[in-house]
What we know:
Layout: E1 8-15, E2 25-30, E3 35-42, H1 47-68, H2 84-106, E4 114-115, E5 117-123, E6 126-132, E7 136-141, E8 144-147, H3 154-161, H4 166-170, E9 191-195, E10 202-206, H5 208-211, H6 216-225, H7 229-242, E11 249-256
Antiparallel strand pairs: 1-11, 2-3, 3-4, 3-5, 5-6, 6-9, 7-8, 7-10, 10-11
Helix pairs in contact: 1-2, 6-7
Amino acid sequence: xxxxxxxxxxxxxxxxxxxxxxxxxxxxxxxxxxxxxxxxxxxxxxxxxxxxxxxxxxxxxxxxxxxxxxxxxxxxxxxxxxxxxxxxxxxxxxxxxxxxxxxxxxxxxxxxxxxxxxxxxxxxxxxxxxxxxxxxxxxxxxxxxxxxxxxxxxxxxxxxxxxxxxxxxxxxxxxxxxxxxxxxxxxxxxxxxxxxxxxxxxxxxxxxxxxxxxxxxxxxxxxxxxxxxxxxxxxxxxxxxxxxxxxxxxxxxxxxxx
Length: 258
């Protein structure tokens, strides 16, 4: 937020990958709001690209409008159990969801479009992580990497029900099926968590074009060995392509300096 004593170094990059003809991912770094977003669109015929851009634009617009007028009336009620900023984040995602859903209902060419969304918002108290779908946030701290989000995917639902072997996971027939995304229904459940960052922590946001072909250990090694965040971002995308590049690849790195 403007005026918040938060210092973060932010860098992002997106790449079409090796197998796709166009990029349906979108990302945004809203520095003045300490807000970063990755969206991975789906729906084919370029409508995935429309959905991911719509999500990013809706989020930005809501944050910009409420920054100018904190007392602006919201279309959704505040949850008194949550902070103002967490409510603000969830409302922005719900608005983005509704915009995509309504466009898909209105326009036959957009029927069935949707997008994942993962977002980090830095506030005075720390970082709020929000997500829908299987795009991820990782935290790199003291030589370790930890996934902070839980995939809303059919594969992950199976993994929660029973333990699958590495081979069963590799051969899982519906690996790319998302069970929660923006645009599927007129309402959406947004998962959130609060982080207490330490100086030097790096938060890595990515689409599954990175987390699919690149292991957590590879991500950690690249971020730790790169000369700076820009180099790390480029190397992560390069590694995703070296490992087959089956999908669009999007990465944002955010280093907490406060």
